[in-house]
Design a protein that fits this description.
60s Ribosomal Protein L30, Chain: A, single chain, 282 residues, alpha+beta, 11% strand, elongated
């Protein structure tokens, strides 16, 4: 930059001398003036390049400093996550030990928290429910597929309609996937509060207890036929006593309460003592 500055000054002085006292032609004067202007332009361009270089240098310093700070922040975040994971594992181990102890003592097992299905299973169940919106709902927070009985069975019947059988076959394939192999299935039948009045229906289902249990068994049979191992299945009947919505007055029922719930649960939540628990005489 100093060379450009010196050149600009020399040319400017020479041009002034030629213009005021020298015997020069107009052409020589114009050439000297043009050279001065070029030198000035080069000087300005050099100054601009220098300012840009300085700005880039400062930006680079800032980015390097920020990068160092970010790296430090990430290291701290990773350390916190590792600690949180260790704490969760410790809590899980304590709860599992408490659960196993409750089984050995014959006491009711504690609540082990929400069910978390593997990501692949959760995704498959969401797609399954999306493809069958009229037939069922999927509640991921419970690991549960809720089948609408009015679309699955004829009124007062435990025969699974063909369309529902096809859907249950696809559900069996999801639960039979390697990702879900460590999970069992509970099938829970529910009714509304409408009593069974038809004589021919009462021959097979004397009351809502029978109807809820028989519908759960019917779903179990479809899943078993589709390949779900029997040892991974449990069936329950709850009759009318666990409604999800108010029934109409005068035992008029509610379609929302007529349902079959399919719960996908970890194997350690199966409601049995297990083969390694010895019976004791009391």
């Amino acid at each position: 930059m100093k060379n450009f500055l010196g050149l600009a000054m020399i040319v400017a002085i020479s041009a002034g001398t030629l213009a005021t006292g020298g015997c020069v032609s107009k052409q020589q004067y114009d050439e000297a003036l043009a050279a001065s202007r070029r030198a000035t332009e080069q000087l300005e361009n050099s100054q601009l390049a220098l300012r840009q270089a300085r700005a880039e240098n400062e930006d680079l310093k800032s980015r390097l400093a920020a990068s160092g700070g970010l790296s430090s922040s990430k290291d701290e975040e990773i350390a916190l996550l590792a600690k949180a994971k260790a704490d969760l594992q410790s809590d899980y181990d304590k709860l599992k030990a408490l659960y196993e102890e409750s089984l050995r003592s014959g006491q009711a097992p504690p609540d082990l928290g929400p069910i978390v299905l593997p990501a692949q299973v959760d995704k498959a169940l969401k797609e399954f429910a999306s493809a069958n919106p009229d037939l069922l709902d999927y509640l991921p927070e419970y690991g549960m597929v809720k089948i609408k009985s009015d679309l699955t069975f004829e009124p007062g019947s435990d025969f699974v309609r063909p369309a529902a059988q096809d859907a249950l076959g696809k559900l069996a394939a999801i639960v039979n996937s390697p990702e879900a192999a460590e999970f069992n299935v509970y099938i829970a039948g529910h009714t509304d509060d409408m009593p069974i009045r038809r004589a021919e229906t009462r021959k097979r289902h004397p009351d809502n207890w029978y109807l809820s249990a028989h519908r759960g068994i019917a779903v179990q049979q479809v899943l078993a036929k589709a390949g779900l191992p029997a040892e991974r299945i449990g069936v329950l009947g709850f009759s009318e006593y666990h409604p999800v919505a108010p029934n109409k007055p005068g035992k008029k029922g509610n379609v929302l309460n007529r349902r079959v719930e399919i719960w996908i649960v970890p194997q350690d939540r199966l409601l049995t003592a297990g083969p390694d628990v010895e019976a004791t005489d009391k």
